[in-house]
Amino acid sequence: MKTIFFLIFIFLPFSILAQFTLSGKITDAANGETLVGATIFHSPTHQGTGSNAYGFYSIKLPEGKQQLIVSFVGYTPKILLLDVQADSILNIQLSSNNLLSEVTVSESRRQRLLMGTQMGENRMTAREIETLPALLGEVDIIKAIQLLPGVNAGSDGSAGFSVRGGSPDQTLILLDEVPVYNVNHLFGYFSVFNNDAIKEVNLIKGAIPSQYGGRLSSVLDVQMKEGNRNEHVGKASLSTLSGKYTLEGPIKKGKSSYMLSARKTWLDLPVRLIYYLTDNSMQVLYSFYDLNGKVNFELNEKDRVFLSFYTGSDRFFLKSEGEAYWGNSESSKWQFNWGNTTASARWNHIYNARLFSNLSAYYSQYNYHNYYEMKGSKTDQTIDTYSSLSDFSLKYDFDYYPDNHNRMKFGAHLSSLFFQPESTLVDTTGIGLGSQYQAPVMEFYWNDEVAFSDKFSLNLGVRQSTIKRGEKFSAHLMPRVSARLVVHPDVSLKAGYSRMVQHLHQLTNPSLSYPTTMWVLSNESLESSVANLSSLGLYYQHRSGLEFSAETYFNTMDRVIDYLPGKENFKIDAAQWDESVMTGIGRAYGLELFVKHRVGTYSGQVSYTWSRSLRKYDALEYVGWYPYIYDRPHNFSMQITKTFETREEAKFNKRLSLNFNYMSGHRLSFSNYTLPAILPNELEGYKTWLRDFNYYIPSPNNVRLPAVHHLDLAFHLDNKSKEKSSWVFSVYNLYNRKNISFYFIQKNKVKGATLLPVMPSVTWNYRF
Amino acid sequence: MNGLIVPGNAVSVQLWRSGTSADTVFEAIEQARVTLFINETEAVSLQYYGNGIYQTSTVAKELTSYRIEVTTDEKEKAWAETFTPKQNFGVDIHNTSETTSSYNGGNFSLSLDDHPDYKNDYWVCNLRTMVSYDSITTKSLAYSLYSNSPLIDKFNVTYDPEGNGPSNFDYSYFMHLDDSGFNGSTVSIDFHCSGAYGVKEENIMVYNMDIHYSNYLKSKMINEQGGDNLTEDGPPISYKPAFLYSNVHGGLGILGSYTTYTKTYQYH
């Protein structure tokens, strides 16, 4: 009975006075882009709401004259005076303002930080990311999120990352709601996200809402730009590494728009020219490209359609002429390609002022293809290797706003995952050919954010996931809950719990993000991984804009997988991959501190994380708990930006940004024990070529490498005119710290190789 | 602790202090208390015979669980256990070569009966005796076995485009047959031993190994192959050293067991 009363309490509207619903979209006045997470605040009742992922909002207001404040970070707040007499639609436009003081934007941040129930959320716009110093002048959102508390990077300079002690595959990475299965270019040194095509990125690492599922530790939600709905604009960029070209504009002014962005490394072009001119007997080429596109059509006030796609690929090519293989070869060719393709179609429909829906159908594929060809005087040979993962999905999401105290989300998600482990064709002999596995997944979720009072809010949710593993079905129920308590006008406390399930697992060499990363599916013998994420946080925001947060978390993981000892390389018999992995448990815990402030022309943020991440596997039962490779207890990061005041007639706005990052070193397995070997008695007296003693690694990741730290600078010259050149001069690793990018063993000693010494770069941007 | 229990032979283990990574000479442990448990029942204490060897007159049997516990004054208990495989596992080997010249090598057909209830792995090798022109005899583990059988674990394979005999897949030293999926069936493979001048005798060895020793042997071979990474030849960019498998709790090493079948071929 108590439960029934409790539910009635939750779902009953709090007020029975005459109220009307105001709904609509919040967009950028300049380009018509929807603004995600903009807030609308009704001062007299201290009630507010936020725009959803498509800019839609809905708020109930009392009858009569009302005042609303609409705000969003980086935009001039708008005060609206309305005479509310009926349910009505109001589309709101906000104007961006680069020079806005932190005081004026604080209301929007306050709403999210102090009044929302969401924990462990970091939202960054493409414009914020652009201000950070960049490696080789290539702005990268993954590098930007590595600076956030709770995020540990992979090897120095790489785009690999671990969130709150999870493995890289435990972060759900979405591009326009479509999962991307390999986000790495250039062996992990850059990500597939072209910043010019991106609107914003949102990292959620604690109290994960029930609309997200499929991964254990976090969500990285990347949204592409929709395209300027008012005018045709473009941007061309040239950095030390790549060239980029972006076009966007209206298809029908104010109603529909397009965005197309391309990026390609250009370093292979001069190399090709050199080969052409010198007739070199060996050629090595590497390149990558990305292509993002999106169109959207507003069919009427209630319906809008989005079509978006992404494709990107890396190509490594090696060609040699002459004797190279058993005295036989005359020429050989090695080509290695890997990449992703995603496509999605989404239909927004507003059923009424309180019910918003989005129907999505998407496709995502990751594959790699390794081809070797040798033409010899005696014989020819080809080796053709291929592996892929495909995801076809349909999902239907609803946002329902029964009143200002309740905001519900619910929906369903159907997926069909196809996974082909590595298959190889050696001339005409096939290994693992035709091995393809499929797993249908069906998921439902419901979520309700309930404000019980000005001080206390609760977010209750549940997600249900059913997967067909071989001939078996297995179902998982995932409760999600988070709560917020305002203990002082400037201070709130939050707590959250999420249960997560992961059906897909990535098997990879963790020392570097190698392109032959293979995704595998839970099957009859391997159950899905499960995690329990718990977190507790304190948030403070002063009226001056000073922001502080402290979050602590404790995550447990069950049935995480890794290679069995000695089976790290099972490329040839990949069809039996499940016999080569072991399952175990994990735990991760830590404390994250974050401060952000703006004083005059200086703005900055500082974060510090203390964390541990441990694993334990049944197959290594004698080892017990051991540190995970991303176990880096100390992580300190600081960014400061100075905006220079310039004279009115000056051509450029000038900005200097600084980034300093310190992290404990990487973990590494290294032998520090030896013991005599033992071979079968029958081999005694026979020469075996096997060592008569063994190197033992007592436990995985038993050695910690030196700490990684670097200071980076960027100086921006932003042309005041919209249609002129801008420049960014960057220096990565200013004091030339010899951080270790990868390791090798030489004469029984660990040696580190530094790939990224001090690296100056320049980027030219031209807007038109 | 290292020990290999072979049904029909007395049980023994050898104990050393492990060295640092630079040591290749080891100090034997002389004052340990070593106890043997058979099928989880304490059976006997092992006596010290020098050079770190502890032994008992108890003769090992097939399909039996053996557990060794070791304590010393300076260290807490270390222990390991193994389950001995079946002695007779139905091996049959035929030489299917058309000639018997050592220069041409030999084609062989092997079959064995898997035990449905126990997870054992099978390993095949060739112990070869050669006599050179100047009458020097060398005995060695043959470095290649060739087979196209899909049943063989590919962890130590290289592809030979020219082939050797009827086969293109070249296995270094051993062919490993993982028990998974055999389910008590009769397992058959064809393989080829490459030819050479001066080969006088080939001993085709088929091992029926418990899972611990099989894991150990495989991980040892991986460590010492191209993927070794413990030498300067290892590819640094993909560095991830393999663990050497150990089933000794509270220590390092291996307690394993095996049975074997041998067939000898002589060339004239």
Characterization of this structure:
The complex is a heterodimer of chains A (768) and B (268). By secondary structure, chain A is mainly β. Helices cover 6% and strands 58% of the residues of chain A. Chain A has a 22-stranded antiparallel β-barrel. In chain A, strands 9-16-17-12-13 form a 5-stranded mixed sheet. In chain A, a hairpin with a 2-residue loop joins β23 (329-352) and β24. Chain A is globular, with a radius of gyration of 27 Å. Chain A starts with a helix and ends with a strand. Mean pLDDT of chain A is 84; it is low at 1-16, 100-105 and 510-515. Chain B contains 1 helix and 20 strands. In chain B, strands 1, 12, 13, 17, 19 and 20 form a 6-stranded mixed sheet that branches. The longest helix of chain B has 14 residues, at 211-224. The relative contact order of chain B is 0.20. Mean pLDDT of chain B is 85; it is low at 226-239. Chains A and B meet through β42, β43 and β47 of A and β1, β13, β15, β19 and α1 of B.
Largest sheet of chain A: 22 strands, antiparallel, barrel
Give the % helix of chain B: under 10%
Range of strand content of chain A: over 45%
Morphology of chain B: globular
Mean pLDDT of chain A: 84
H/E element string of chain B? EEEEEEEEEEEEEEEEEEEHE
How far the N terminus sits from the C terminus of chain A, by CA atoms, comes to 66 Å
Unreliable stretches of chain B, pLDDT < 50, 5 or more residues?
226-239
Structural class of chain B: mainly beta
Count of helical stretches of chain B: 1
> Which residues of chain A sit in consecutive blocks of at least 5 with pLDDT less than 50?
1-16, 100-105, 510-515
Q: What best-fitting shape of chain A do the alpha-carbon axes yield?
A: globular
What do the pLDDT scores of chain B average to? 85
Tell me the fraction of residues in β-strands of chain B, as a range: over 45%
Number of DSSP-assigned strands of chain B: 20
State the separation between the terminal residues of chain B, measured CA to CA: 43 Å
Radius of gyration of chain A: 27 Å
- The number of helical runs of chain A is 5
Largest sheet of chain B: 6 strands, mixed
* Gyration radius of chain B, rounded: 20 Å
What is the count of β-strands of chain A?
A: 49
